[in-house]
Amino acid sequence: MPANKIDQNSVYLTADAPLPKDKNIMLSLLFNDPFQKVVNNLYGMYSSKGYALADVLKELSERIIRLNFPKNILAGLLDGMSNIKDRLFFDTEERLQTGYLVGVFNKARLDMIPVAVD
In the prediction, which pLDDT does 29 show? Predict the structure, then answer.
């Protein structure tokens, strides 16, 4: 019988945490793609890979803290994600909260667009 190989993927899968490549995909979707596409892709990823939105929020918040966002953008992202986590605690439906997560990131995207002043 061959020995089981313990690697990064097996550790993440055992912990029910999103794989690093999946976190990258999620962030790319959240910052670049249209609302409905992001909701569908994220929710599909949760379903197919067994990720819980609460775990995704934890992993994404740790990742975005390390990115170089202006303080107001980072605060808005973390506040929105914290609100989602609170609602999940009270058993709010994950698909609805996934939509809210996409909205939080869409707002951050809009807030980062420079405003032309005449």
Answer: 96
How many CA atoms does the CB half-sphere of 94 hold within 13 Å?
Answer: 15
- Residues 104/81, Cβ–Cβ less than 8 Å: yes
Structural domain boundaries of the chain?
10-111
How confident is the model over 19-64, as pLDDT tens digits?
899 999 999 999 999 999 999 999 999 889 889 999 999 999 999 9
Contacts of 104 (CB under 8 A, 6+ apart): 76, 77, 80, 81, 84
CATH number of 10-111: 1.20.272.10
Half-sphere exposure of 49 (CA within 13 A, CB side): 25
